Task: structure prediction
Amino acid sequence: MKIENLNPQLQKAYRRIPAVPLHNSILLRIIQFISKFQATPKSMLGVSIEDHSVGKSAVRVYRPSGTTSGAGLLWIHGGGYIIGSAAMNDRECALYAKNLNITVVSVDYRLAPQHPFPAACDDCFMAWQWFIDKAKTLGVSPDRIVISGQSAGGGLAAGLVQRIHDSGGIQPAGQALFCPMLDDRTATRTELDALKHRLWSNKNNRGAWAHYLGQAPGLAQAPLYSVPARRDNLSGLPASWIGVGDIDLFYEEDQRYAERLTDAGVNCEFKIISGGPHAFEAIVPAAPVSIELFESNYQFLRRVLAL
Result:
């Protein structure tokens, strides 16, 4: 994709980002190995940070000083289901905690291909249950928690919301999805390979889905909750917010999911940023278009969390 296709505010940063072939298994192992060595800060921006083991994975908890609002956010990091960690979103989670005066729990889930589905899905569900169980200790009302995530984390968040709905009990107050990775069938559209989308290409997409699902993407059947866009009935899900750039590889699948949520009677906001490539809000957070996206996201959170 030519740099000229990107929003002018983002071109300088993305010009310096190389195309990383994450579908290369050797390179993937190297990146996964390096990501293990990220320090755990005790605080950031005046927000305390603590790690807790939960089952076979872990969570990272961000708490602002003083009395909180009683609301919470369950955050799930991105990385195509194959790379990343909770540490990569320390800044974003600390800002949520500080700016909204809420408690944030970030899931450090297991990664494919070493741990294919349902490992990450199960880790996120256990993190949700842990958050609900610890809500009183954390000063959070269980019915005032939003589930959120970016990219693969947005896909995991969407699948988790579906799983919680079917399981019954306490439901999330909403879901907020940044450029979510929702549909493995996009990976089968080989005509998209030539576009070479910035940061996350369709070749990476195809390899990542295969690693996560343990099968080729686009087969007739996919495991329940593994591919959120495959769910037939979206009714009864909580208020939703989806934000994405219109040159993101996931734009069409995200747009379709937002339309289907609305058609199912779910209150869904779909925020589009012109010329926005994948995860631009994390790559260039100070850009006006990134600030615009986060302002929309914050407005949604304030409304559904009654802040």
Summary: Residues 3-304 form a domain with the Rossmann fold fold (CATH 3.40.50.1820). The CA atoms of residues 189 and 202 lie 8 Å apart. The chain has one domain: 3-304. The mean pLDDT is 93.
